[in-house]
Amino acid sequence: MSVCKQFRSSRAIRKTKEEAALTRESVLQAALRVFSRQGYAASTLEDIAREAGVTRGAIYWHFQGKAELYQTLLAQGSQKPLQLLDEVSSAALSPTEMLRRLFIRLLEDIEEDETFQAITELTLFKSEPGIVDAQGEGLAQKYQGTQAFAQQLAQILHRGIDAGELRADLDIQVTSLAFTALLNGVLLVWLQSAKTFSLKLFAPSLADTYLQGILASS
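The line above is the sequence of TetR family transcriptional regulator; the predicted structure tokens follow.
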């Protein structure tokens, strides 16, 4: 094969891979919209294929079925908080500043990133009968992500205590749980209120309220 033909062949293969990746992402986004609109049980592959503008065969090329689509979305949703935590942890911030920045960034991203918002809403607040069986491997990955997040958050809390920024008598597990509970509680209120207030606007004050309960006395 000539060099020219090899180049054209490799370019065609690369283009095919890129197109396949775009189709896969398009199907995932379509599945997210359909699941969010209709619920998991009422959604069919035909609905998702129609939403994505592809055939059922195109979906089966990338996914085994509806359950794997849901599992993939579930796994994706568990990665974003870890990515934000990694970003905050790598910044030149004190432990207290890390906690504040992380809380604010999570609420900001949920409001700004429609995909992250939809996955979070779907997996946290739109549970329905029979959906646990469909979660499968995605649920396991989400649990692993949640555990990893809690462990890294605990490390920040320990560093805050060691630095004298946080109260020495803190129960790390309870303090970590309170962080997540406040975050999810605010998100639930925001969704139930039809998003009538800005998470970004309230995030700094909410973060400060959380910190006031755990800061060491000056």
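Note on the example: The first helix runs from residue 3 to 38. Residues 17-63 form a domain with the Arc Repressor Mutant, subunit A fold (CATH 1.10.10.60).
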